[in-house]
Amino acid sequence: MLQKLTIKNYAIIDHLEVDFSGNLNVITGETGAGKSIVLGALSLILGERADPGMLLDKEAKCVIEGAFKVKKSQVAAFFQQYELDMEDQLIIRREISAAGKSRAFVNDTPVNLNQLTELSQYLVDLHQQFDTLELEKSDFQREVLDALVNQPAVMQQYQQQFQRYSQVQRQLKQLKDQRDSANKELDYNKFLLDELSDAAFASNEIEELDAELKVLSHAEEIRNTLSRVYFQLNEDEQPILQQLKQIQSSIQALAAFHKDAPAVAQRLQSAYVELQDISSEIGHMNDQVQFDGARIELVNERLSTGYKLLKKHGVQTTAELLQIQEKLTNSVEGALNMDEKLAALEAELEVLRADLQQQADTITAARVAAAGPFEEKVNALLAQVGMPNARLKASIAQGGLNPYGQDTIEFLFDANKSGQFAPIRKVASGGELSRLMLCIKSLVARSVALPTLIFDEIDTGISGEAARQVSFIMEDMARGHQIICITHQPQIAGKADAHYFVFKDARDGKVTTNVRLLTREERINKIAQMLSGEKPTAAALENARELVK
């Protein structure tokens, strides 16, 4: 429930505050006084986009603030989702700077416009003059019927299942596309894989073969060099190892005469041992190097295969070639296994489809069951608001599964009891749409927990008895909801629990809009003026008193 609305520096409003009652609030005033401007300001705290051109004082900021009383259970999920502070009173504030920047706050915590719009859906239904166009839309018509069915848990379960169904459909399509693409490349990939598998290169093999070929190709030169060095170390007329041993012994003999001699002798001994080991290694190397023409031919062939594959795949090393082989293996195996995955997804999709169909049938049955009573009640209300010959019919046609079931819902209208029903968008006039929307909303309001409904001149185009009947509908709705209604009808104004008068006030050389809560006598006078003009007659005043009663 909207308890208080504060508006500063908006359009032709300098500063005003309005405290609303919890039942039927009526706003009246002359055309152009600013009634709809008040609702325009309210729409800003409900998430509408701001127009910086609407600032009265271009040097100051505009502030719109609404204080709402809400049941915590209604908005608890929203506050939990966005980590906002829950309090007994909900304060929404919108600020628009002179530079055109807009900010929104919920209980002094900044929020974005999307969050504000989402929150507003729990608080207010704002119906303006041109919202009757919504009545012509299929989505709105479905929402009306579902509101009367009032089984949100059933719809939520269906939509969750449909979301999974759609996800599996997308996965299935994606996998089929991948399979088709993979099948086109499968033969070529298998050829490449067979080529690499037949080559069967081990890790680092090409590099090792390249090193081996260099040794085999220079075997004679290597053996000559190694033999010569080994001979110089061990078998020459004065072998290097023997000379080094003699030098070490000579230095060791000086140990009695020089303190550093033992350390030098020890180092020479270490050099001798190391050179002995090197000599042994050279001998071993020499024994291993053998010229082998057959091996050279085999290595050359193996390297030729390796170099060809490296060039073909545009890589430099055996490791990279083996990585390509692994990818090709995965690709070929994946393509061959896709049929199994497709079969599994198709089976899952069929199970989901069957389950969804069952749920959709349940939803359809509930809608069909609700359609009859809905038609009867709307038609009764239409007669009440001055359209006794009008008839509404809810057409429910089954089709394919969609996010809301399987039904296409369309409201058909017959204005003259002709038996010729046609879509509302084709046959209903503006005045008929306006009254029809009121009748529908009065029914929906009983099924929806929305605390506040706002009507901006929904009574346009009606008068007399029809207006009186509309006032009864408004009065009945106000028993369970807060109603805020801008009207020109005295019959509706007479039913108000609180009557606000909007007027222009000239002060300090500028004209601004103000709102005043009328006393009982002021109400009678204003309603009398609505009946008979600026200077109401005694009969008009008496009639106004009757209406206020």
UniProtKB/TrEMBL annotation:
Keywords: ATP-binding, Coiled coil, DNA damage, DNA repair, Nucleotide-binding. Residues 2-505 form the RecF/RecN/SMC N-terminal domain. Gene3D superfamilies: P-loop containing nucleotide triphosphate hydrolases. CDD domains: ABC_RecN. It comes from the Bacteria. Signal peptide: none annotated. The keyword DNA repair applies. SUPFAM superfamilies: P-loop containing nucleoside triphosphate hydrolases (SSF52540). Pfam families: SMC_N. Residues 123-219, 335-362 form a coiled coil. Belongs to the RecN family. May be involved in recombinational repair of damaged DNA. This is DNA repair protein RecN.
